[in-house]
Amino acid sequence: MESDTTRALRVVQSANLQHPDLPLVEVFLQNAANPDLAAKYLLEICTDDKGGDRFFQFVDDWKSLVKKWVFPVVPLTAFYIREVLRARRRLDVQLLTSYRNASMIYLELSLALHIETFSFLLELAILFPLEIIGIWYDIRHNSGVNSSPFITFERMCHWKCNLVDHSATGIQSPDSRLFEIHRRFAPAMRWTDVAAKMERRKPRMHKPPTRNSFSEILIKGALTIWKIFPGFIRLQTYKMLAYAGFHLYGEANSQVQRLPFGMFMKFDAQEKFSPRIMNEFNALTLVHNHTSIPAPRPIDLIVTSNGTYLISSRINGVGAGYALDECSDEEMHVIAQDLRKYIAELRTIQRKPDSTFAISNPSGGPCLDYRIDVSPVGPFRTEKDFSDSLRLGGAPDVVHRDDHQIVFTHADINLRNVILRDGRIEGIVDWENAGWYPEYWEYTKCRFGVRFSKRWLKMLEEVFDHKYEEELKIEQVYWVLDSGM
């Protein structure tokens, strides 16, 4: 029998609420101290509400109530930060949990800013590491309502907060019950902040990036001249730019560095002909030569006796994971159509006529895909060989069909690698997993590891037309067995 909460959620989801009103009302039900009671309240409102007036009045009332909990953010002074750092040495915090599945939690800070007695709540959220099953996640640079997420675990069944004062000064610690109140209101406060930002924002008129044929000729000419110089001279130049980039922009990660003049350097300083770097360079070359997809331009590839270095152009914008929540429903539709177009273009790239293998990387060699293994696998002469290689002992009868079309595939389109600017796709990055795969692989990899972003998952169905549901079910069996969850 359908529960009241499920019925109420179905009513909300069928009401054609504009973003972000839909998730704002959903959290009224999902985060209530008594979800069944909240659901019954909402269902009573909707009884005999043929025109929907009472329901939409409820939505307005809920939005008004949440706004009363959202206060202006107080700027943090240098003195305040020093006091917080001093307090950090006096108070330990541990959240003891019993979760298994990964999920996402947002800590919203505006409420804490205005509770004088419990001002440590803000200090803890900004500067204290939280120990969650032995793994530490540092929450930094959060001083507003829409703070950055950190990974913890799904199902907030049992959690306990221990606040211990080591200063022997008798300082008053926060009441742990405030964390519970804060947790329940935080998502609603976050969506309220998103709505306010969308209302303040000017209309976005950004057009998708295009390539100018004249500038293409100039760039190709300049690169041809530059590559006349010996590799060691070019590499030293890039290393000097990397040094400048480190001081200007900070370190992206241990194997990626932003450079001045709109460039990025990816490198593997320990492996000659690194599969990761070589794969990306070859994929970007194919994409730039055969499509109009906005991808980083492959500027240079240098292979030394003990390292591989790729220089590419930089795509301006932010990852979809940071930007989708602030996109309107209309912008989400445009993003879906753009992505659909780019994937269709990608599939027009033809392999060499004399290629021996059906499933391979861009140059016809072994595939690099972290869904399968951290090391290259294959190549595979047929799709059946590829499908057989994916089979797991825990489900020996679960296997993909072997009659799919084999197409060129990015193989890692995700919330991090789709770059957005002003509500449009500015570029698609990280092509190291690209190659020829069965047609369903692009879709299932778009879903791989994604549990939290409903908007992303909904958009993917618009892109792929619900075409690969059978293949997704098989992949999900593999994912569970591979992860041991």
From TrEMBL:
It comes from the Eukaryota. CDD domains: APH_ChoK_like. Residues 264-460 form the Aminoglycoside phosphotransferase domain. This is Aminoglycoside phosphotransferase domain-containing protein. It comes from Hymenoscyphus fraxineus. The lineage of its organism: Eukaryota, Fungi, Dikarya, Ascomycota, Pezizomycotina.
